[in-house]
Design brief:
The structure holds 2 protein chains of 2 kinds. By secondary structure, chain A is an all-alpha fold. Chain A contains 9 helices and no strands. Chain B is mostly helical. Classes of the chains: A mainly alpha, B mainly alpha. Chains A and B meet through helix 2, helix 3, helix 6, helix 8 and helix 9 of A and helix 1, helix 4, helix 5, helix 10 and helix 12 of B.
């Protein structure tokens, strides 16, 4: 138990720092994934024919290839692309790693899943609502902000909650590439002290706590998104 | 077919083919002949892991789902806790916990080290199978819970009215209808399981992913093995999707 103490020789601080990195990367990747998802969903539904086909290729490819393989591919490709742009403009190449790289890599993967969740949610908005807004002369962006996005929120929240739980767990894959997040910090601590069971169980408890808190928060968000909706019996919820 | 092959699609397909051709011709594939003989076995390991852990996981998932759907509290609460723990922690952590954690505990006991099981327990693949099975059981348990609950009550009442024993009801009526309902989800989960198998490379099991990593380590070629790897996974995923589509068509279902 003293191995989990906060200050050295305990590894508590290392694990908590790892958990902080995990949450930071997860939040960033989720936000980036949502941004890609909103754009992708609107593109898939209202975009031009070629946009639709390209987005279909993006979501199909990303969802058919293991996340680990995608992470490696995107990490190398992004590193090479950024550094070739930098050297072409006379800058020194940068070391593409750490939190920002994790966010970009996981965000691109999340974007494909978000696109599908949000597309389904937009389809659940009654067509009459959107037609009415168009008939009132709303511009497409105003329509999206005032009508489509608020109305689809309640249908999107369960899927988006699942995606958040997925991204918190997918951050563990970054350990394979060498990012110091919770799983990597745990394996470092376990490898140094040889008490594997203690550290992996401790990390498991941390992940579980994160997921239980997330489930609770998303239940609150879903309740908020469903405010004003009537349930099946006709009364307000 | 005419709806799919419109001019813009033909252009897109042409661009895609040109990309593939460019990859095949101008990238560095000189390493491929040296590793060609290793590829079939590695692909077979990946498929074997997916199929075996899916089958074992389903066997665990059926009691887990049943316990959550209709079981008494002393069965349903542990089942629910198990599913929450599995679904709340990363598979990589579960894998490392079992391999390094359990493995190091086993190694401490001379009784286990001298037992006949030790040559098996010393290898990595039993832990890979165990971790992937336990993980998929947790996810499938939730799916089966919903599927068992989704079978119309009238079906079970009719079976009971016919005087069927409880086990026969479960085997002939309840389970087939629940599996039929869950089939599309199980298909999706099988693809997800396929995509989790590369994680076993981190505990030294040699599947197709770890072969690609080895090529990179030996030759410092980065993109080519990964691109080929992505292609292999897409092909297997496509096969799984086709297999489940065929299964779904084989099991008759009436669309109202």
């Amino acid at each position: 138990m003293e191995l989990l103490a906060w200050s050295p020789p305990g590894w508590g601080a290392t694990l908590v720092a790892g958990l902080g990195n995990t949450i930071l990367i997860a939040l960033g990747a989720y936000a980036l994934g949502l941004a890609i998802g909103v754009a992708g969903a609107f593109g898939k539904l209202y975009g031009g024919l070629i946009t639709k086909d390209l987005l279909a290729v993006y979501t199909t490819l990303v969802r058919a290839v293991p996340e680990l393989v995608l992470l490696l591919l995107i990490t190398f490709a992004a590193k090479d692309a950024i550094n070739s742009v930098l050297t072409a403009n006379g800058f020194d190449p940068i070391n593409f790693s750490g939190v920002a790289a994790g966010i970009i890599v996981l965000g691109v993967v999340q974007g494909a899943y978000s696109t599908e969740v949000l597309r389904g949610a937009i389809l659940s908005v009654p067509a009459g609502q959107i037609e009415a807004a168009r008939a009132m002369g709303m511009s497409p962006s105003l329509l999206a902000r005032r009508i489509t996005l608020p109305l689809m929120a309640s249908a999107a929240v369960p899927g988006l909650a699942n995606l958040w739980l997925t991204v918190t767990k997918d951050t563990a894959l970054l350990a394979v590439i060498g990012f110091i997040e919770l799983t990597k910090a745990t394996s470092l601590a376990a490898g140094t002290t040889k008490s594997f069971l203690t550290f992996y169980l401790a990390a498991g408890v941390m992940y579980l706590a994160l997921s239980l808190v997330s489930v609770f928060i998303f239940a609150r968000i879903e309740k908020w998104a469903r405010r004003g909706q009537r349930n099946a019996t006709g009364g307000a919820m | 077919m005419t709806a799919f092959l419109q001019p813009r699609r033909i252009v897109l397909i042409a661009i895609g083919l040109a990309l593939v051709l460019w990859c095949a011709l101008s990238l560095n594939w000189t390493w491929l002949p040296d590793y060609l003989h290793l590829i079939p076995l590695a692909i077979w390991r990946t498929i074997w892991l997916t199929v075996v852990t899916m089958a074992l996981g389903m066997m665990l998932a059926i009691p887990l789902g049943l316990a959550q759907a209709v079981g008494p509290a002393y069965l349903s609460i542990p089942a629910r806790v198990y599913c929450s723990i599995i679904r709340g922690t990363p598979l990589l952590l579960q894998l490392w916990l079992l391999y390094y954690g359990l493995g190091s505990v086993f190694a401490q006991f001379p009784e286990i080290r001298q037992s006949v099981l030790w040559p098996i327990l010393r290898q990595a693949w039993p832990y890979a199978v165990l971790a992937l099975t336990l993980s998929v059981a947790g996810y499938e348990g939730e799916v089966m819970r919903g599927a068992f609950k989704g079978v119309p009550n009238g079906q079970l009442e009719a079976a009971r009215a016919m005087g069927m024993p409880r086990f026969t009801i479960f085997w002939r009526i309840w389970l087939p209808q629940a599996v039929r309902r869950a089939l599309p989800t199980i298909g999706g989960e099988t693809v997800l399981q396929l995509k989790s198998t590369p994680l076993v490379a981190t505990i030294t099991v040699v599947d197709i992913y770890s072969l690609a990593k080895r090529v990179t380590q030996d030759t410092f070629i980065v993109y080519e093995p990964l691109l080929l790897l992505a292609l292999v996974y897409m092909a297997i995923a496509g096969l799984i999707v086709l297999l489940f589509r065929w299964l779904e068509l084989r099991v008759p279902s009436r669309v109202a």
